[in-house]
Amino acid sequence: MSSTPASLAADFDLRRLDSAFYDDPFPTYHALREHAPVKRMPDGSVFLTRYADIVAVYKDPKTFSSDKHEEFAPKYGRSPLYEHHTTSLVFNDPPLHTRVRRLIAGALTPRHIAAMEEGLVHRVDGLLDAIEASARRGETVDLIESFASAIPVEIIGNLLRVPHDERGPLRGWSLAILGALEPVLSPDVAQRGNAAVRDFLAYLEGLVERRRAAPGDPETDVLTRLILGEAVEGGGEVGDEVGGEGGATERLLANELLHNCIFLLNAGHETTTNLIGNGLRCLLEWPEQKQRLIAQPELIRTAVEEFLRIESSNQLGNRITTCATGIGGVPLAARTQVTLCIGAANRDPAQFENPDVLDIGRSPNRHVAFGSGIHQCVGMGLARLEGRVAIGRFLQRFPNYRLAGPAVRAPRARFRGHVTLPSRPLG
Ligand code: HEM
After folding, report:
1. Cα(134) to centroid of ligand 1, in Å?
2. Which of 1, 172, 369, 403 has the maximum number of C-beta atoms within 10 A of its C-beta?
3. What is the Cα–Cα distance from 11 to 3, expressed in whole angstroms?
4. Which DSSP state fits 165?
5. Whose CA is nearest to atom 7 of ligand 1?
6. Count of C-beta atoms within a 10 Å radius of residue 335
């Protein structure tokens, strides 16, 4: 018997999801928005699906904290994963958040991002050449492995100046660490996540040591910026005590430096891989929009925004209430965990006309794929550039690409993307 929207909403439990949900969570999100927009989960947390409620939470970081020490303690115990996640800027409030964010943001201004475009185009064209060569040999090409995942690793690797021949393990470490953020954590996933944090830390300790001995240009090398702390603006070295309100002279502790490097490498990887993979998949599912983009390549800017909206790479965000409050008319006690469903907000009909329809020219398109407020994605300019260059140039080169087998989605609620996207690029 098929479920009704009311029963879908009533039965929803983020900790008990099935493969149909992972494939297409949007009917469930629509049902929740309509019948239980502030849905109480069996564990006492609430799950938000309305655009307006989610934006209101993002805009009030004092009431809705990002600090995960309390939430992650029972999930991870005293483990490398716990230390990692509770030290990264995204899961902290000011002042740690402010200090780290300022350091990273300084190397990701529009000017810095524009300067990365030439290298990115070169890398993308190299990948397209290799894909064309495989296709001419009659081979099926996995667009995730051969294309989408190969781009962000290069860009983030460049940002931290990770030597090319040392980039091999980065994606595997990232996937293992991010996989452990799913709502349910199996012992196996926890074990892989912890091993990845340990290995990643060991690698970065060596890299930081080498960089201390031979610093890069703090203008563009994020690792050097983080090592120098606020030296670019104020002066200082890693390892000094931190405290106070996040003033310009404070510096990062050694573990803050390492964990935030790991976070940066992770934040820019899977999300951007999925933007590229989801975008290429969307165009196959909406052939008239594909033709439209081929005819009007200048629409690539709005097209990327639409891919981010309709198939948001990052579907869930989290906050915890610092005091008794309310959202959408529902009272919430202090210390209530709140899940923000970005994927649902981005298909809210109160905000977007025909929200389930891909419209590559959609304007305005005020999606929250990058969040909003003080934690809004620092890398969004870079992610947008990667999306535009990768999808735009792929389509120019292979306008007749098609699937050559089942597109397999990762069974994940938080990060929406594909494990494989087998394709015949030459049609
Ligand atoms: C399509 C690609 C991307 C998506 C969908 C995405 C999404 C997000 C979201 C939703 C947040 C907010 C988290 C929250 O408020 O709890 C965030 C934060 C962040 N992202 Fe991204 N991101 C992407 C790419 C990148 C890239 C390429 C980088 C780095 C170069 C990056 C670095 C960061 C950082 C450092 C934060 C933390 C910001 C803070 O806490 O102040 N992201 N991202």
Report:
1. 33
2. 369
3. 10
4. G
5. 370
6. 14
The Å distance, Cα 381 to ligand 1 centre, comes to 10
Q: Which atom of ligand 1 is nearest to the CA of 371?
A: 10
DSSP strand pairing (337-341 vs 46-48): parallel
| Shortest-distance Cα residue to atom 41 of ligand 1 | 375
- The Å distance, Cα 176 to ligand 1 centre, comes to 18
Query: Which residue has better confidence, 218 or 130?
Result: 130
Mean pLDDT for 349-378 is 98
Taking the C-alpha atoms of residue 369 and residue 353, their distance in angstroms, rounded to an integer, is 17
Nearest alpha-carbon partner for 140 in 403, 396, 410, 417: 403
Which among 30, 338, 276 is positioned nearest to 150, based on CA atoms? 276
Residue 368 buriedness (CB in 10 A; 0-12 / 13-18 / 19+) = buried
Q: Is the pLDDT of residue 106 over 90?
A: no
Residue nearest to atom 9 of ligand 1 (CA): 370
C-alpha 131/C-alpha 136 separation (Å) is 9
In which element (H, E) is residue 277 found?
helix 270-285
pLDDT at 168: 92
DSSP string across 295-329? H-GGGHHHHHHHHHHHT-SB-EEEEEESSSEEETT
Specify the DSSP class assigned to residue 246: -
Which residue among 86, 162, 377, 388 has the greatest number of ligand 1 atoms within 8 angstroms of its CB, and so is best to mutate?
377
CB 66 within 8 A of CB 93: yes
- What the block records as the tokens of 401 is 């690409």
Query: Going by CA atoms, what residue is nearest to atom 29 of ligand 1?
Result: 379
Indicate whether 174 pLDDT > 50. yes
- Residue owning tokens 């905000």: 351
Residues with CB under 6 A from ligand 1: 66, 89-90, 97, 101, 104, 156, 264, 267-268, 271-272, 275, 313-314, 317, 369-371, 375, 377-379, 382-383
The Cα 367–Cα 354 span in angstroms is 14
pLDDT digits over 235-293, tens only? Answer: 333 333 333 333 333 568 889 899 999 999 999 999 999 999 999 999 999 999 999 99
Cα of 273 from ligand 1 centre, angstroms? 13
- Give the position, in ligand 1's atom list, of the atom nearest the Cα of 101: 41
For residue 141, give both structure tokens: 């090409």
Atom of ligand 1 nearest to the CA of 313: 5
